[in-house]
Specification:
five-stranded antiparallel beta sheet; 16 strands
């Protein structure tokens, strides 16, 4: 159990038998009336996001979530196999749990795997990854004034919009949260 005053981003709460991750929180002390905590919560299995308000000092049940850095090894059927870098245990994770992170997973890359009671809740990649472009159309000479973009396929098979000056074989940095081009690597 924890107080709503102890909430932090990323903390996992057990509310009415469901797991919710705190995305944002704000402690509000209005001029009139009692203080309260406004939160944005994300349901872990489904990804549904809700806003919930708690009275300040209210006790909430926290879930014991084990976050570990694991190495992605390979894909076996539909499952993604991760290895715990401390114990060398291999864990298969379903595609529904990995979600959009699968577009940026490279073999032998690290990811944070969160587990609760032996069940994998979610897989979290670093904020950005470096990927090599396997195919993109050539940029036309003189077509620079608009600062436009073009689609490029990276080594994981994902498509990223890149500036016109990027060519095949170049390494780029991609934001794993929204799939946008950040810079050359």
């Amino acid at each position: 159990m924890a107080s709503t005053n102890d909430l932090k981003n990323g903390m996992v709460l057990n509310l009415e038998g469901q797991l919710w991750q705190v995305q944002e929180f704000q402690h509000v002390k209005p001029g009139k009336g009692p203080a309260f905590v406004r939160t944005t919560l994300k349901q872990i299995p489904s990804g549904k996001i809700v806003d919930k308000t708690f009275n300040a000092g209210t006790k909430v049940e926290t879930a014991n979530v084990d976050r570990r850095t694991m190495t992605y090894l390979y894909k076996e059927g539909d499952d993604f196999v991760f290895m715990d870098t401390d114990t060398y245990d291999q864990i298969p994770v379903g595609p529904g749990v990995v979600g959009d992170a699968s577009k940026f997973l490279l073999e032998n890359s690290d990811a944070t795997v969160a587990q609760h009671d032996g069940k994998v809740l979610y897989v979290e990649l670093p904020a950005s990854v470096e990927l090599t472009i396997t195919y993109t159309e050539p940029g036309l000479q003189g077509d620079r004034s608009s600062g436009g973009t073009k689609p490029a396929t990276v080594e994981t098979g994902a498509t990223v919009l890149v500036p016109l000056f990027i060519d095949n074989g170049e390494k780029i940095k991609v934001d794993t949260r929204d799939g946008k081009y950040l810079s050359r690597a």
